[in-house]
Please model this.
Amino acid sequence: MFEVESSTRVERSSVVPGTEELIINMGPQHPSTHGVLRVILRLDGETVKDCDCDIGFLHRGTEKIGENITYTMFIPYTDRLDYIAAPSSNLAWVTAVEKLFGWEIPMRAHYIRTLVAEFSRISSHLLWLATHALDIGAMTVFLWCFREREMVLDLFEHAFGARLTVNAFRLGGLFQDVPQKFLDLSQEFADLFPGRIGDYETLLTDNRIWLQRTRGVGVISADDAIDLSLTGPILRGSGVRWDIRRAQPYAAYPYLDFVVPVGENGDVYDRYLVRIEEMRQSTRIIQQCLAQLPKGPVSCKVPRTIKPPAGEVYHSIENPKGEFGFYIVSDGSETPYRVRIRPPSFVNLGGLKKLALGGLVADVVAIIGSIDIVLGECDR
Amino acid sequence: MGIAVEAVIALVKIAVVLGVVSLVVAYLTYLERKIIAHIQQRLGPMRVGWHGLLQPIADGAKLFLKEDIIPDKADKVVFVIAPIMVLVPAFVVYSVLPFSSTFYITQVNIGIFFILAVSSLGVFGIVMAGWASNSKYSLLGALRSAAQMLSYEIFLGFSIIGPLMLAGSLNMQKIVEAQSDVWFVFYQPLAFVVFFIAALAETNRVPFDLPEAETELVAGFHTEYSGMKFAFFFLAEYASIMVVSTVAVTLFFGGWQGIGWIPLPGFVWYVLKLGAMIFVFIWIRATLPRYRYDQLMRLGWKFMFPLVMANIFLTGLVKFLFL
Model:
């Protein structure tokens, strides 16, 4: 990737040994690169002089696969993109195809999709908080978060029969209505969860060490964040109130009341606060969805063979990590002509170098944690 | 004749202490896993024996039987010596610890001094381990460790001066006897706080576990070690926890002295206080995140150093004026 420039190796007299910059490979098997990410660091002591990402270890050619199979068959592949929040990826795909058709989806399906998408946001943020805190050394938060994440995964199992790659939605709505038990347990979780968020916060938010490790670390200004096309909590942490759920509403979001939290300083701490508040808002959305859930069918009339009209469409949703979009070109046949994925992690990871330069090795770990990447969609 | 008998008695004592300490240290890992597990709402070891009581023995057997890997590019002699260099000082200091009024291996006039001197040798082993491994992570871990242990050694040393001034002796038994009325922690709360923080840093515990910060440096200085050599580092860490806890109990909490009229043998009091101390160590590990390297240094030199100096000055002033 890069070599130690010869000019940095100053020739000294034989008495004084020269100093050399250290090149360290963080990953792909490093414990805190969250999957198979390889970061090449050039260090002066422990200060980061240069930083380069090497990605693609998880590349499976998902976009190309999309061109060879039907629109319905691609839904399970979207599970494997952002596998931490699989329903969100499903939602992006099905809403994009439905936009291509111009179908009207029943309200009940919209509400259930929103409900499940918010659960996936909570599940994703919990995994982020767990690993981020563990990277900075707080071990207990990790296990507390997993306790609640387990409940969310159980909910998915009640509704869709799977825990991680749930294949939650179908074109035109849902495969079938969710069982009553799922709704009851969702209500139970929504009542319990705000207290649990409070538990995490007692361990971290006002903790002196946590503040020192995260405040003023990995700062990015709003302008820089926009220039790098960062999206999601990392953009909102810099104070830009941009959330696709509000800006270009989809599913049931136009009918729901929620706040888009933003930070001020754009450092690791603000991104932490933004995500914590997003979990609270997600719980509010879940409460509203459960209260307002309309009766009726969960799927519109779907033709036996799905052949969208020729044309192209781009549709994106607010994934837990940022803007997750699909660009589809249809030639009127059963398979798409072209599928292009707009992955939030891939784009957000592009900001790593800007964030990490000049920091210490320990900061790089905190920053990667605060970007919240998932290599499944980064490498596609 | 007399010398021979004494030597035999001493050897028996050493054997007893060494055996008991090794076992206790092994069970300290069990205790830590259990306590942290319950703080984190899980069960911890449950399968090996009743409530996992045989887990440390199973772990020990596993470590014994593991393949002993020495990396190709390592400096082999230093690589082998390093874990021994860490383990031996950690156990040698037990020779002067007062377990009760009658049970100790030896009584040295400069007991506390001896502990500080010997235990600070351990850092050589860590630096050697980091250097000999010929791995970048190990080297960074060892460098961090050396810087950290050397600086915190200083605060550790200065923080005990306050209590020593009150006790008027370096002999561990005399220090305990001097606290028969009031424990020094009530006279020297500041010194105790500094001592405790420095002790955490000395033993590489959270929030100062930078040398082995697994999320940054994989495993720090012992990244390349496996099997029994790894176990040596592990044992030494827990043995040091016992040592600093004992020193804390001796200097600040009256050692084996009981509270008021409650009739318990001195050794039981010692174990109770030691247990409480170790519990706090484990509790902290379950609660706090980790400091960054530069913050650790800043905390030490800009905050704790003036604090201990002020403490020594105040103690001296009070002693000079009123005693």
In short: Residues 3-13 of chain A have pLDDT under 50 and may be disordered. Chain A touches chain B at residues 22, 24, 30-32, 46, 133-140, 143-144, 147, 203-204, 207, 209-210, 212-213, 360-363, 365 (CB under 8 Å).
